[in-house]
Amino acid sequence: MKFGRADLPKDAGLTLPADHAIDATVLKGAPAKAFRLFSGGSKWSLKEMVGPVYPKGTKAKDMLAVYASMFNAIELNATRYGNFPPSTWAKWVAETPPDFRFCPKMHQSVAQIRRLQNVDDVLPPFLDSVAHAGERLGPILLQMPENFGPEHVGRLAAFLPLMPKGWKLVVEMRHPDWMKAEVLAPYLELLAKHGAAAVITDAPGRRDMVHMGVTAPFTFVRFVSSGNEQRDAARLDEWAARLAAWRAKGLREAYFFVHEDGLERVPRWTARLNSALGVTVRRASAGGPSLFDDVP
Fold it and tell me: Could you tell me the pTM of the whole model?
């Protein structure tokens, strides 16, 4: 993921801002009876993952199963480009445990091409496809292009009711104007009205997208590496503290995806987050030395 990358001085800080005002209206102040953390990356099938992430000798046909032994969620980019048949989903479901979650990106015909308009013939095939994930279906990621500005909020308002009842939708708006205070507040309120979550993209080059707005009992964080391990370790620790605070106020689920060029650091960062929150998700790696080595 190249979006939001930036070359920063080594001493540049990337601390989290305060909670958005809407959080107090969504998170009621009492801990949820149960809290679940779903964490992972956005790739499972790269041959470059063999060695740094997967055990040496891992075959392509086994990569999803190995991935699912280390993480309990995947941000699924492939669904942006195609609707997979039931047989493919059946294979993926068979290779993952029941607590695993696929978080599919909305098909490009809906988000990038039709831009939320006239989707009656393209949204149902996508929904029918991903429905075959069954209990392993996580939030749908609606990722809008950077030139989709808040002047189109009416399209979003008309689209949100089209999602099936009970499904989780998360929305990432990249146009900077969505993050302006006078626009952000009503945007978050719109999502909250429909039970959708606003994606928090913690990217070094787009600090405006770290809005800290929680609009549903779940949140969805896309963590983009800064390229500096010590700085990213501190960022992960701060995220753990913030998620713990939200958990104490009623957050039920958190989806946390690491976007990192150094593939070997993805399990390191998710393991660090899980440990800090006291959550046992998966073993940190499929083999090799401790993933906490040399990370303060």
Answer: 0.92
